[in-house]
Design brief:
DNA-binding, two-stranded parallel ribbon, 104 residues, two-stranded antiparallel sheet, 41% helix, globular
Length: 104
DNA sequence: AACTTGACGTGAC
DNA sequence: AGTCACGCCAAGT
């Protein structure tokens, strides 16, 4: 059995290709132990360095703000744009870049 | 050890 | 179409 859903979570996030994004809730649903998107975020708060956390967005394509610190969202947007991810205002164009983690 | 808040999602009003 | 409310449950205080 999976010791930690975190391991699976990190593994999935690490498999997300450049130019693609995944939603928190979808990630939580494909883990052995299905968890809410909230839990995903909390686990990500302890994510190791080198993990492309910026490829994880809300299902609406919205960049989630962490601890009322918009700096993270801004950095995330810069990183995504750098990977050729299309933006629609403040939202990621999920209709083009949102992928299902279970397809990885 | 208990309470509060939260990197979310979906439905209801 | 925007806003409100509830469910999820772990981590920080």
């Amino acid at each position: 059995m999976a010791s930690n859903g975190k391991e699976e979570l990190f593994a999935l996030v690490a498999k997300v290709p450049v130019g693609a994004v995944v939603s928190y809730g979808d990630l939580g649903q494909v883990l052995s132990n299905r968890v809410s998107g909230l839990v995903i975020g909390h686990w990500m708060g302890s994510c190791p360095e080198g993990l492309p956390w910026w490829r994880v967005v809300a299902k609406d394509g919205r960049l989630v703000v962490f601890k009322r610190d918009p700096s993270f969202a801004l950095a995330q947007r810069q990183l995504l744009e750098n990977e050729k991810v299309a933006f629609n205002g403040d939202l990621v164009d999920v209709s083009r870049h949102l992928v299902q983690p279970d397809l990885l």
